[in-house]
Write the structure tokens for this entry.
Amino acid sequence: MPVEAKPLFRPDVLRPHLAGFALPTIDSVKLKHWASEISSGRIDRFGEQEILPHFLADIFIGLLGYTGPAGQDRYTIGFERHVQVDGKYADAVLGEFNGHQHYVVALEGKGPRDPLERPYAGRRMSAVDQGYRYAINLPCDWIIVTSIRQTRLYHKGSDQQTYERFDTEELASDEAALRRFLFLLGADRVTPAAGKCHFYRLLAESEQVGRELTKEFYINYANMRQDAFEQLSRDNPDAPRQEVLSSTQKLLDRILFVAFSEDRGLLPADSIKSAYEHRDPYNPRPIWANFRGLFTAINSGNQALGIHAYNGGLFADDPALDTLQVSDDVCRYFRELGSYDYRPAHLATGEGRGIDVDILGHIFEQSITDLERLRNELEGRVEPQGAEKHKTRRKKEGAFYTPAFITRYIIEQAVGGVLADRLEQLRVAHQKKASGTAKAALAEPGVYELDTLSKPANASLVAFWEAWQDELATFRVLDPACGSGAFLIEAFDQLHATYEQSNDRLAELRGYRTLFDLDKRILENNLYGVDLNEEAIEICRLSLWIKTAAQGKALTSLDHSIRVGNSVVADPTVHPRAIDWQATFPEVFAQGGFDVVVGNPPYVRQEWFTEYKPYLQANYAAYHGMADLYVYFYELGLRVLKQGGLLSYIVTNKWMKAGYGEPLRRLFTEKAWVESVVDFGHAKQIFADADVFPSIIVARKPTQEAKPEIARLCTIPREQLKVDDLSRQIDTEGFELPQKQLGADSWQLEPSLVTHLMAKLRESNVPLSQFVGSKPLTGIKTAFNQAYLIDGATRDALVFDDPNCGRLIEPYVRGADIGRWGLENADYWMIVIPSSGDYAWPWAESGSEAENVFETIYPSIFAHMKRHEVALRKRSDCGRYWWELRSCAYWDSFKHPKIYYQLIQFHPCYALDSAGVYGNNKTAFILSDDLYLLAVLNSPLMWWHNWRFLAHMKDEALAPNPTVLENIPIAAPTPIVREKAACAVLRQIQITNAYQAMRRTILDWLRVEHSVIKPSLRLQSPTSLDSDAFVAEVKKIRGKKNPLSAAALKSLRDEHAQTIEPARVQAMEALQLERQLSDLVNEAYGLTPAEVALMWKTAPPRMPVGN
């Protein structure tokens, strides 16, 4: 069966929009004319160039309301728009064109006989392929393709099986279809004069509803499973609970398959409902007997019930399940699960929300998670000593669901890459044997004019495409940790498209189409999956069966190719589910191994498989005692590949630099050719609930050819990840990387020019500690902040009670109070009582009387501390007495001028402190008041350097640990540079201090005068707002129930003019100073114009100051 098409927007999302859309009055004459031309067949006499311009004029301009350039200052459709990247022309582009070009939709048209989804008449690409390429290269996010008969809307970030479809004949005869067409593609909503194209909102709403429905359905599904499992356990006390759990899941798998099949015409409608409601008054029996009869009918067929034999293993006899006592209450869950709507989204009707195959995919993945947790509880497993605590077994077992855009990219690179190589090898081999017109035809076997082919040329092309189908039949794809089957499903789709392309070519060349079961061929010949988790394998099989089920066709048995096993252990004495790969899959290794290995190997910490380490050490060259499990999946993947095959995993990037990855890196230098690396940093868009640093690697198993000298690398910080445009982003932002940078030592994932510039910065300058004459120091660690860190009100109360205690209370800053150039005055205070080992307190030598002495001298501080005595005494890190702070060798340093910085850096924020402020344990400081040094630390160049030099923390924050920061390179400036930098920094500090004072004043004024108690983030940055935006933000916070009076409105505008507007002018000055300082620092480091350009081209996220 063809791969199922899915709508771009959920019908239940579109329904209310369509209901509220007033159908405009239109002239339907031209639309009916086009429908008549199509139905009569007259349209087939014309080609694309003859007819497409007229169709676009009548439908897109006349009906949908787009405007062309003739006599228009602003127009919304442009024709034959040139695409710079590949030099081609899109037939049309929808967007806004009024002096500047804003592309929204790329439009590609074909003639009425041309299929849209496959190349036709010898063309290289289908209309859809061309449309996607235009959208990528223009760029824009949406694609429309039309063949006159049919028009489709695609989204660049979705696959080619996801689109909205409009049939021209139906538009002329069905008002509902016309309403949908006009609403979705109407110019007023696609290219509005103000705001974004409404496709974005509809897609976001569809995705949100999908997430909500997935969550809602899974909660119900999981509760059903839990309740059914508990009921079955009670009713079958002699059955092992592990066995009951497996049977429970298998029952639900069967019911899901039946529900899906009956809603899609594969089984009689309401099969589940009938089995649940059927009663025989003459021979009463449990409802379970009806369901057993239904399962038997599906397994073996039942002509009386109109059920074909589907078999495949899912409904085969299962003694453990068949002997269970299943109550009517459990069967009620079957009825409830079957009541959802599983029809294809475009067939769903009514107000119900459908469960599509994408939702089922997420349900299956989450099922694996919960089943692992349940089995873990049944087995009474406990976490190993020192292992990180996790909320679910999912994290512990390392299973994270891979997003569709990642699986699609990996399969495109790995499966698509190998297939492209094999196709070219086959072409070359056939062309060498050919001569004359046959040889010429084989120069490009997919491009030909059918009517002009000679018989020898035609025969050579038929032989080539037949040989290609034979080649495809032996193409093997493996996922060695397949989980719910996401990678195998994507591989199925892409292989299906490849088979269909060859089928189409042969049908054109022969004049007839050969019929064979394509789904069965792919499942039996091309896809292999292994997983340690038995339920994962059952669910993976179910996913593939649901994908390929067709009426009257038996399910393909997957027992051989999709199986339970421990992929990295081959010895059954070590693990009962060990896999001997060559013995298990002899048909694969008879041809040298798998062509492609893909997947998301499990992220299992090394503490969890301690008992298997002796085996791994003896059998894996990549072994390291601290290596996590995914390391061994890399070596396993390379082992089972055939020469020239490709491996592609998504896995953490830590092994590329960590010590435990050194054996694996060495293995890669010897046993693999790295073709590409994509490093995503700490991208939460990929694994939202996992603290990992994902990367994708594509590596080839070496052949007899010479090793390539370069690989392709693309580093994508998480703020810059383009989920909807990943392939283009990698193509345009990636760069060539010498293979020598991918050796056994830590991988240097940077362009060679960046590596050279980093070396220049290090070698030509001196370390920070040498430049300053001292090392950076950390703020104060109190070990109990509640006692020592106080606010202004508490400080005032303590001093009021005892003015003498004021000498012990000092202002302090938190990391959050450190800005660029200046410290924020947050009215925080620290009670500073150094250890009497460092300071000669009156009680230092008082022994048992020390507490009384402390109370006598500082009574209010003593009373405050006394309230926390129990907690303070429990500290292991304190002074000689319980109220004192830990020993510190540099207490006096806090009183000196210094440069403060944060120990968790999201932005480069270094600030001068000349007032002797103390810092907490989230701060550090450099003992210097050198304004030039401050300029360096805050510069774009130093952020560029530190991004590569400092360790990265959660959410891509930098960790400027003093012991590391002391080694950053500082250039010695010329006297002129130092003087200019000092002047600019002084002015920058003045502007910063003025801005902070203004900000405090304006927020306090808003609180008192306009009841703005909780200012928004925008109001907290008042210089970013003009007068209208300032008023609008205040209105939004006050709400409709508390509108602004005329006087209040005037006061807001007056205050903005008097207070904020002058600060906005200063902000522009500050920006110019930032750029001046950046240039001065670049000059001090001796950067050439080319090196400055390189710095900005390879700039990390959150660079201070734009280029």
Observations:
- The longest strand covers residues 641-652.
- The CA atoms of residues 779 and 919 lie 5 Å apart.
